[in-house]
Amino acid sequence: MIDRSFIGRSFPPLHVDVEPFQLRAFARATGQRDPIYWDEEAARAAGYRALPAPLTFLFTLDQDREDRFYFINAMGIELGHVLHGEQAFTYGAPICAGDRVTLTCTCMDIYDKKGGAMEFVILKTQATNQLGEDLGGMTGTIVVRDPK
Amino acid sequence: MSAFAHGVTYAGVDVGDSLPAVTSKPISRTTLALFAGASGDHNPIHIDIDFAKAAGVPDVFAHGMLGMAYLGHLLTAWVPQRAVREFSTRFVSITQVHAVVTCTGRVVEKREGNLVALEIQAADQHGDVKLAGKAVVELP
């Protein structure tokens, strides 16, 4: 059982730079076909001040940590038993290359189903940029299966 | 210029309209390795078969967020990214190596404020649904 005292707890804020190299690598790895995601000129022609981060990139920015599995380890969860259940994004100002983004992650809920055979962890992350603009946020549901 | 002709308007869409489908290339082990690096999701269950077997699954499988990136392509091929206000998905089932993922969507509701609600999904070459999602876009 995951310690329910994590509910309501926030992890220390993360400050992360949005790097064009990473955006281009992401575009390539996902088979992106729209050049605004890798070509600076195409991005500017489309009205962006620099390469825009794609719709799911906030999730990637949240990985720029010393311990990528920070909440999993903090909660004592076995990494091999983790499944991604759901993911939701809301959008504010665009995120672009060169931005510095601050992410704050809070554990919203932890509950179980099937008599504890599956536990669910809900994490909500809010993001702002270097100008203090609201970038929206994301909510993830992590499912932890009991292999027994 | 973007290679994508947008021009979708609130007045020009109706409930029931389909979005143009987007199909991925086959997901190879290389795809998963590159996505692990590019996305920062280094969970070895997606790239290390020894780890996967030790965790009780027969093979590595695709990152859920890879499928969600493909769903994102469906949206941004239809409207400019800044039109997207909300985007969510459930990861319905595991996407296996070698899957070819096709993303489809349709308009389910027109709301006040030029908002259009969509239902979207990603399915493999057998028609098995992998991701079932929703989005809200704000159209001119």
Automatic annotation (TrEMBL), chain A:
Superkingdom of the source species: Bacteria
Residue ranges occupied by any FAS1-like dehydratase domain in the UniProt entry: 5-133
Protein name according to UniProt: MaoC family dehydratase N-terminal domain-containing protein
Species in which this protein is naturally found: Pseudophaeobacter arcticus
Lineage: Bacteria, Pseudomonadati, Pseudomonadota, Alphaproteobacteria, Rhodobacterales
